[in-house]
Each structure stands twice: as C-alpha cells, then as structure tokens.
Amino acid sequence: MTALSRRDVLRLSGAGAAAFVASSLLPNLAAADAASTAAAIKKIIGSKTLQQGRITLELPQIAENGNTVPVGFEVQSPMIGADHVKAVHLFAEGNPEPSVASIRFSPASGRAKAATRMRLAKTQNIIAVAEMSDGSVYMAKTEVKVTIGGCGG
Predict the structure, then answer these.
(1) Measuring CA to CA, which residue among 65, 130, 64, 137 is closest to residue 101?
(2) CA-CA distances (angstroms) from residue 139 to 18, 25, 130?
(3) Do residue 11 and residue 79 come from a single domain?
(4) Mean pLDDT calculated for residue range 94-111
(5) Do 42 and 10 sit in the same domain of this protein?
(6) Cα separation of 54 and 69, whole Å?
(7) What is the pLDDT of residue 24?
(8) Residue 32 in this model has a pLDDT that exceeds 80
(9) Does residue 27 sit in helix, strand or coil?
(10) Residue 21 and residue 8: Cα distance in Å, rounded?
(11) Does residue 20 or residue 86 have the better pLDDT?
C-alpha cells in the first residue's frame, strides 16, 4: 500500500466536493411538465374553472435564442372597480420551475397589458392565467419553439 501525497489528497477532496455540489444541484435542473404546471396553476386558482378567451399572448413562434424570449400579453377588461384584472400569472411548461412571473393590476392601471422577457430552457408551451375581480379565471396557451443557432430544439 502506498501513501497518498498531499497533492493526491487535495485532488480527491476537490473531486468529492464537486460531485457533492453537482448531485445537490441536479434535482433542481429537472424540467417541469404539464402535470407540475397544472399543479402550480391549481395552487393559485384553487378549484375555479379555467375559461378560454380575453387574453392575447404576444410571443414569437420560433425563438432563435432561449435566453431572452420576448413575451407580452393583454387582457380585455374595462378595468373599472367592479370589473378589472387582478393579476396575470405566466408559466413555462419546460423550465425547471413552471412559475415564471406574476403581474398585479388594479383599476388605476388603466389597461391590463405588460411585456417582458423570459428565459426558456427548450421548446415548450407558455401559459398565461388571468384572475379577474369577479373571481373568474381565464387562460391562454402558446407554444414557442426554441432553436439554438437556428438548429431546432
């Protein structure tokens, strides 16, 4: 049996530490799926029924770069005290975390419209859920194909 040199011990310790860090991070890298996205939506809206309509999503059909994908939306609403959009929640089915953003509105907002950018891990559905002041909930969904260098993904 040969004794390990100080350099070998440091090398093995570094490799062990790197393996530990990587193994603790890997579970968080798993992509969300339709089921986990539905669970995240259910957590926000509870037992309310999702309705179609009223939301217009503005997303590219093909994103050349998943690191910065423009997303915009508008919800049709008069934005008055008795009838306004309370919040819009954005979800990405293929990202490590399905919940991307929540934007709050009030009648003082004037319009329920916003634009931002999001990072997309791969080709996936983007879902917008709008909570209305009367308790109703609306949803819109659009697929965005993420390409890397124009090669498809």
Answers:
(1) 130
(2) 43, 32, 6
(3) no
(4) 94
(5) no
(6) 23
(7) 47
(8) no
(9) helix
(10) 20
(11) 86
